[in-house]
Amino acid sequence: MTWIEIAATVFGFLCVVLTIRRSVWCWPTGLVQVLLFIVVFYDAKLYSDLLLHVVYVFLQFYGWYQWTRPEANRESLVVQTLTFGALGAWILVTAAGTLGLGWSMSRWTDASLPYPDAFTTVASLLAQFLLARRYVQNWGFWICVDVVAIWVYFTKGLNATAILYLTFLVLACIGLVIWNQRLALQRGGEHE
């Protein structure tokens, strides 16, 4: 455990708390987190996670833009839901992406735990995209990512990161409940 991992952990915790509250500050906080985790995952030879965090840099800016554009201010509390068909399609994309990336990492690199690492990468990218678009299902994908990530990080001796993802798991469950409550209020015609 290094000071970089500890700092990334703190920023990660703050990012998720701010996300649950639908605060735009989740994006710059998340940006700091992902930059720090790039270093952590390089050292741990978790290359899929490293690539994920490089992409996260751009997704942080995308989410920040999505949540701060003029139209977003009117919709700041609005969340939406995927259709059953769209959810099924995203699950298939996640499975195919996991197999493809896992195979690539096992074939062409010395990656550690290539398939679980690939799953957390592919599912995280999807969850981050769904979060930026305010789909409530982002939390379900994050829950799946967190369960696998906890095992991966404890296995790799990244204990602070594993504890962070255990905290993320709890926070994702809370986020799912809160965002579903918000969705129910919207469907009932109530707005804050």
From TrEMBL:
The chain crosses the membrane at residues 46-65, 77-101, 113-132, 139-154, 160-179. The keyword Plastid does not apply. It is a multi-pass membrane protein. Keywords: Cell membrane, Membrane, Transmembrane, Transmembrane helix, Transport. It comes from the Bacteria. GO terms for cellular component: plasma membrane. One of its GO terms (molecular function) is nicotinamide riboside transmembrane transporter activity. The keyword Transmembrane helix applies. Required for nicotinamide riboside transport across the inner membrane. Belongs to the nicotinamide ribonucleoside (NR) uptake permease (TC 4.B.1) family. This is Nicotinamide riboside transporter PnuC. The lineage of its organism: Bacteria, Pseudomonadati, Planctomycetota, Planctomycetia, Pirellulales.
